[in-house]
Amino acid sequence: MDSSTSCILLMLASFCNMVCFFTTNAQSSSPALFVFGASMLDFGNNIYINSTSNCSVPPYGIDYPGHFHRKAVSRCSNGRNIIDFLVEMLGVPSPKAYLSMSKTRNLPEEFLKGVNFASCSAGILRPTKEGFCIPMDSQIDYYSSVYGTLMEKKGFVQTQRFISNSIFFIDIGNNDILVYNGTGISKYVSLLISTLEGQLKRIYKLGARKFAFMGTEPVGCWPTLRAMNKNTGDCDIEVNQLSVLFNEQAAVLLQKMQSEYADMIYSFFDAYKEFNKYINHPETYGFEEVKAACCGMGFLGVEILCGACDSYCSDRTKYLFWDSWHQTEVAAKLMASAAIDGFPPIVFPINVKQLIGNGLHSQI
Ligand SMILES: *[C@@H]1O[C@H](CO)[C@@H](O)[C@H](O)[C@H]1NC(C)=O
Ligand SMILES: *[C@@H]1O[C@H](CO)[C@@H](O)[C@H](O)[C@H]1NC(C)=O
Ligand SMILES: *[C@@H]1O[C@H](CO)[C@@H](O)[C@H](O)[C@H]1NC(C)=O
């Protein structure tokens, strides 16, 4: 055997080693959830920044499974939120709140179960509810540090395989819409979308390949804004227009990113359209009250806020809204199953189930 043949054989052998190595890693890398956004998804990060916007006071979480008497579970809901249901329905590990992990041993292993960075009140723009939350840019900073730890402890190949296989579930923008101050809808949406573009691209550059983006809700129909229309309790039309425009442009942004990055796939969930079905056809979904908050007092339950008082409706399954801003557990369950199994025009071009099943596994 001459030296060039043995060289080729050696190369073949090491190629085989690489293939076997990759295959083993692919099997051990089951998908996890990396969660970014605001209160609909938050698992309690705000407790660690001492924010009063924390959903950690009773009666929040009263219907959370296994919840102990009068101990809140940091869910901005009466019970489970959208991420709790995604975990149950997809059979993936439950990601911990990032700031709750500071004392966790064996961090890289824990990171392989995903991480929840979402923070109640957070927005795309840093000034949105500044001081009360972890803004989107800072959530990505935290993720960058998680990615760095994984790279260091698990190596490039395993990290990139795991991250590219995981679902990056993002729901951000509702709070930016909530604080809109009337300076012109299209200008404001342009600012939101261009900022979001930088944020999503940064997440992509940190290895993410599977994006599940949840659009904004009919924020103008949240009890807090309905109550501004003192006599009628009608929705705020301008705020809803802002939300519709944001969703249109966010969907275009994701499509544009996919055409720029051949290895990126996404699912867009038009939460506005889904949520509007509950408002317009309550009986179809088992709701009897879609305007007033279950928890709280006064007009539409927003004059004395949930948490400041302990007054709440007896049948939470009949209400769309738990408090002035947040949906009830039954609504979160409907939203989660729509994201997972939905179809156009509400969920497109694929849903979360297809996003999970879709194999980019053989590439790095
Ligand atoms: C939050 O409050 C606790 C107790 O007062 C304190 O120990 C901790 O340093 C505070 N954390 C932050 C981020 O301010
Ligand atoms: C959570 O918010 C309540 C007020 O809503 C506040 O009293 C409490 O101190 C906050 N908890 C933390 C850990 O910051
Ligand atoms: C309204 O919001 C814009 C964009 O966030 C900000 O630049 C401007 O200062 C705000 N104006 C007022 C009056 O709050």
TrEMBL record:
Keywords: Hydrolase, Lipid degradation, Lipid metabolism, Signal. GO terms for molecular function: hydrolase activity, acting on ester bonds. InterPro entries: GDSL, GDSL_Est/Lipase, SGNH_hydro_sf, SGNH_plant_lipase-like. The keyword Endoplasmic reticulum does not apply. Residues 1-26 form the signal peptide. SUPFAM superfamilies: SGNH hydrolase. GO terms for biological process: lipid catabolic process. It comes from the Eukaryota. Transmembrane segments: none annotated. The keyword Cell inner membrane does not apply. It holds the Pfam family Lipase_GDSL. PANTHER family: ANTHER-SPECIFIC PROLINE-RICH PROTEIN APG, GDSL LIPASE/ACYLHYDROLASE FAMILY PROTEIN (AFU_ORTHOLOGUE AFUA_4G14700). Belongs to the 'GDSL' lipolytic enzyme family. This is GDSL esterase/lipase At5g55050-like. It comes from Dioscorea cayennensis subsp. rotundata (White Guinea yam). The gene is LOC120276833.
